[in-house]
Amino acid sequence: MRRPVELLAPAKNLECGIAAIDHGADAVYIGAQSFGARVAAGNSTEDISQLCSYAHQFGAKVYVTVNTIIYDEEWEQTSSLLQQLQTIGVDAILVQDMGLLSLHPSLPLHASTQTDNRKVEKVRWLALLGFRRVVLARELPLETIAKIHQAVPEIELEVFVHGALCVSYSGICYASEYCFSRSANRGNCAQFCRMKFDLLDAEGQTIIHDKHLLSLKDMCRIDALDDLLKAGVTSFKIEGRLKDLTYVKNVTAAYSERLNQLIRQMPDRYVRASKGHCTYTFSPDLKKSFNRGYTDYFLYGRTKDIFSPDTPKAIGEYVGKVKEIRRNTFTVAGTASFANGDGLCFINERGELEGFRVNKVEGNRLFPLKMPVSLHAGTKLYRNNDQAFEKQMAQRTAVRKIPVRMTLEETADGFMLSANEHHVVLIMEKMLAQKPQRENIIRQLTKLGDTPYSCEEVRFLPDSFNFFIPASQLVEMRRQLVAKMSAKAEDKRIHQAPVSADHTDNAISWQEKNYERYPYMYNIANEAARMFYVRQGLKTITDAYEISKVSHPMVMQCKHCLRYALGGCVKRGGERLPWKEPWFLSMPNGKKFRLQFQCNECQMNIIADE
What we know:
It is a single chain. The relative contact order is 0.13. The radius of gyration is 28 Å and the shape is globular. The strands form four sheets. An eight-stranded parallel barrel has the order 1-2-3-4-5-6-7-11, surrounded by four helices. It is built from 15 helices and 28 strands.
C-alpha cells in the first residue's frame, strides 16, 4: 500500500492559504483569531471556512493552530473557538496546552512542536493520549526520527523542512517573557535570539563583542526529503506564518516539485496526499526567498556553521564580487543580471550587514541610490530583493487542476456522463445527428473554466456514437457532474472519537530531568491542565513560568552550543579554550545569562543570572 506524503505550507491569511494550495501544498496550517503561536497571524472563522472549501476541492487539508498555553479566564472563549472550528470543517487542530483535552474535541489532534517532542517516550505518551500526529522538535537528527517512527508507527510524524529556526527547543523558551513580558508560549515572542550579545568569561573578560550569538541560519532540507521519507516522515512542514505571499508561492512550489520527482522514482511506495497537477509561470528558486543563509540543522550531525553572528537579517542570494568602483558606480564580476530597484547587501569591515538600493542598471554597471562608503573591489555581494522576480511573482503564478476523463454513453432511455466514479443521467428521446457531433460535444463538456478540474479525454460508448444532444443539456450534465465530484471531495474530512484526558495509566515516562529541576516547563496555566497532570501521576504541580515568575529561570535550552562553535568541544575533537567558565551572555541593558554546557545531552542551557 502506498504511503500518502504531505507537503504542509503556512498561511498568514486566506490569500496565502489559497496560494499555497495552488502552488502544490497538500495541507496548510493557519491561525485563528486567538490562541495561535503567532499573534500577528490571526484569521476569522469566516476566512478559515472559505479556505477549507477551497482546499477540500483538491483533497487538501486545513489545520488550525490553537497552540498557546491558555489562562483560566480564556477557557470559555477557547471552548467556543474549538466548536466553531469543528463546525466550519477544519481537518485538525494543533495544540500545546494539555488542558484542552478535557474539552473532548472530536477533531483530530496534532501535538504542536511547542509540546517539546524530542524523545520516543514523549511521542509514545502522546499517541496513548489519542494524538493523531506529532510535530517533532526541529533539532532531531535523522536517526532519531527513524527511531521514533519504528517505536511508535501508529502516529504520524510531521517534520519541519524549511524556514526560520528558533534557537531554543520549542515550548521551553522563556527568554522573551523574562526580558520583555512577552511570552513565546502565548504567541508573542520578542525575538530575543536575534539580538546582539557580548560573550564574557567568569572573570568578566570579553570573548566576543556585540554579535548575534543566538541567531541561527534558516533551515533548508530540500535535498534531504528522500532520507526523511525513508525515516518515516508523513508531513513535510514549511515554516512561515508571518511570511509574505511571494515566499509561500516560491517555497511551496520548490518543495512540491522535488516531492513529485521523488514519488515518480518510487510510484509503488508513495503518493501525494492530495489531488491535482500544478503548472507554474516561474521557476522556483529558494535562494530568492527570505533567508539568513541555509543549514540542514543537525539532521546529519552537528556542524559549526549553523548560526549567523553578523546579522539576523536576510542575506539573500550571492550575485558576485565588486569588480571595479568608479565614482558613484561599480561593476560586478559574475553572471547575475540586475534590475532597477534591486536590493543588494554585503558584510562591511565592521562585520555588519549593510544594504543599499540600485537606482539604475546599465549592463553590469550599477548606479546605487547612495554609494556605500565601505564598498570596495572584491566585496562579496548578495541580493535580498530581486525586483524582476518580485514583479513576476505579483502576477498569478500557478494553476492547479485535477485531471479527469469523461465518458459519455448511450443508455436505454437517454445518456449517461461519468467521471471519477460519479455519473449523471439524462433522460431524453434519442435522435441521430444529421452531421458529426463529437467535436461539439467535447467542446461543451470540457469547458470546465474556474472549476478545479481539467478534462484530459472524452470517451464515447459506443465508439460509433452519433447522437444529437442540445448544448444546454450538455452544459447541465457537466454542471451536475462537477457538483457531485466537488461534494464528494468536501465529505472526506476525518473525525475521531473525542479524546479523553482521563488516562490514569499513562504515566509520564517521558519526563526529562530538566522538567524535574524546572517544573514550570510543563507550561501549566489553567485548572484543566493542572487536573490533567494530577491524573497523569505528576507529584508536584507548578504553574507555568508566565504565572509563577520563578527566580533564576532557565530561559532557553539549545542544541546550538557556543563552546562547540568556538572550537572548544573536546568530545568532538576541539581544544580546551583559555577562557574560564562559566561563560555569560550580556545584553546592552545589563541583563546577564549564565551558560550551562550540559554535555551528557549535548546541549547548552541559558539561565537568567539575576
